[in-house]
Amino acid sequence: MTITLQEHIARVKPITQTDMLWEVTRDFYYSHGARMIAYRHFIGRPEQEPREQMMFVSEGFPQDFIDRLFDERLILVNPIPELASRTADPFFWSDIPSMTELVDEEEAFLDVLAEMKIGDGLAIQVFGPMARNGIFNVGFGKTRPDLDMRVLKELQLAGQLSHLAFIRMTPDYIPPAHGAATMTEREREVLEWIARGKSNSVIADILGISVHTVDTHVRRIFRKLEVNDRTTAAVKGLGAGLFPSAA
User: Could you tell me which of 183, 181, 205 has the C-alpha nearest to residue 193?
Assistant: First the structure.
């Protein structure tokens, strides 16, 4: 039986424990045809924190996929959270290639989704006070459901409600580490060549990737280090020990 948004609101209202909140939220999405659900909480933009530094909970996803996600650090190249942070509406995983330019590692992540037969799912962005944001990934398996905008918005509103309830229950939540600690190996490589004075086109030739891919990495490096120019990025990267001295 499908749980309506109004019923979900009534169920969430009296809850005071996060484990019960998770069960109610899971049941709502399962009643709408979901087979898998994951929730991720972060501060500000969704940097890809290592497992021990992030708030992440899931149910229904194959355990071997979850293990690979962290053990092989696929979490570092997952394009879904970053894309969700730049959009206002939920979107299906299968639509990602048409929504943004992916770097090679991000395409590889989507290949793993296909390889492990996870199927299609919906990315639902949620927002909170003090930049406490989050994302629900709701998997539907092999068949992509035909959901109109009204239903998509109801699914998002339900997630938003649960997200705000979680925030109220965890007022002392400590932000995960951001910035340099979350930089991927490829981004460190690009940053090291920036520190050595190489242009994006030269870095592309050295690493055997496209200039567009390098441009994307540079934008993300700037954002993670909170800088606006190459020199400052190099200084911060060197100070954080991300690469040995270029001297």
Answer: 205
- Would the pLDDT of 51 be above 50? no
Classified as helix, coil or strand, 213 is helix
Q: Which helix (H) or strand (E) holds 133?
A: strand 132-141
- Residue 246, pLDDT score: 45
Chain centroid, CA 128 distance in Å: 16
Integer Cα distance of 188 and 208 in angstroms: 15
The number of residues in the chain equals 247
Q: What is the pLDDT of residue 227?
A: 83
Return the SS3 of 178: coil
pTM: 0.70
In this prediction, residues 69-74 reach a mean pLDDT of: 80
DSSP string of 85-100, one letter each residue: HT-SS-EEGGGHHHHS
Report, as an integer, the average pLDDT of 22-49: 86
Amino acid at position 123, single letter: A
CB 213 within 8 A of CB 200: no
